[in-house]
């Protein structure tokens, strides 16, 4: 709640792209609190280094700004990486809702091998080929 209290609504709304929304979209109260809770995860986990995709960047910046608000010296280090595409044809990024389109940290080696063998890989095509992104 402290993150919500220390920020104005327009600042929180600028983070809405992490949910695939725009600042101008009408959001429910739950969606607004989700943004604050996503930011709070960094503090709850006591993370010194936070690694998230580029699509999470605005929430990471909000977390670092919050450290200024609470006058803490050690801000979390934010490592932002590009998004890996989904393994299936036409997927811009991996999806948690389709386990076959994503490789998860907890996947066993055999499971990863099966997913890679089933991945979309058009011969001779580099653009839009998820297998190339992993090489």
Topology:
Blueprint (H helix, E strand, L loop, with lengths): L1 H4 L3 H5 L15 H16 L4 E5 L3 H13 L7 E5 L27 H10 L11 H5 L1
Parallel strand pairs: 1-2
Characterization of the model:
- The chain has two domains: 2-81, HUPs (Rossmann fold, 3-Layer(aba) Sandwich); 84-135, Tyrosyl-Transfer RNA Synthetase.
- It has six helices and two strands.
- It has helices at 2-5, 9-13, 29-44, 57-69, 109-118, 130-134; strands at 49-53, 77-81.
- Helix 3 crosses helix 4 (57-69).
- The chain is elongated, with a radius of gyration of 18 Å.
Task: Give a nutshell description of this structure.
With 135 residues, the chain is mainly alpha-helical.
* Number of DSSP helical runs: 6
What class would the helix/strand composition place it in? mainly alpha
Global outline: elongated
What is the domain total for the residues? 2
CATH superfamily of the largest domain: HUPs
Task: From the structure above, extract its key features.
about 140 residues; mainly alpha; Rossmann fold; Tyrosyl-Transfer RNA Synthetase; 2 domains; two-stranded parallel sheet; about 40% helix
């Amino acid at each position: 709640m402290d993150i919500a209290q220390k920020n104005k609504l327009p600042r929180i709304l600028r983070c809405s792209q992490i949910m695939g929304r725009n600042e101008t979209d009408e959001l429910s109260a739950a969606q607004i609190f989700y943004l604050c809770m996503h930011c709070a995860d960094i503090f709850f986990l006591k993370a010194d280094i936070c690694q998230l995709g580029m699509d999470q960047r605005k929430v990471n910046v909000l977390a670092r700004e919050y450290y200024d608000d609470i006058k803490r010296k050690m801000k979390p280090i934010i490592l932002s990486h590009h998004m890996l595409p989904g393994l299936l044809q036409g997927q811009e990024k991996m999806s948690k809702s389709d386990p076959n389109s994503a490789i998860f940290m907890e996947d066993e080696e055999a499971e990863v091998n099966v997913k890679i063998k089933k991945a979309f890989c058009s011969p001779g095509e580099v653009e839009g080929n998820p297998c190339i992104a992993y090489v």
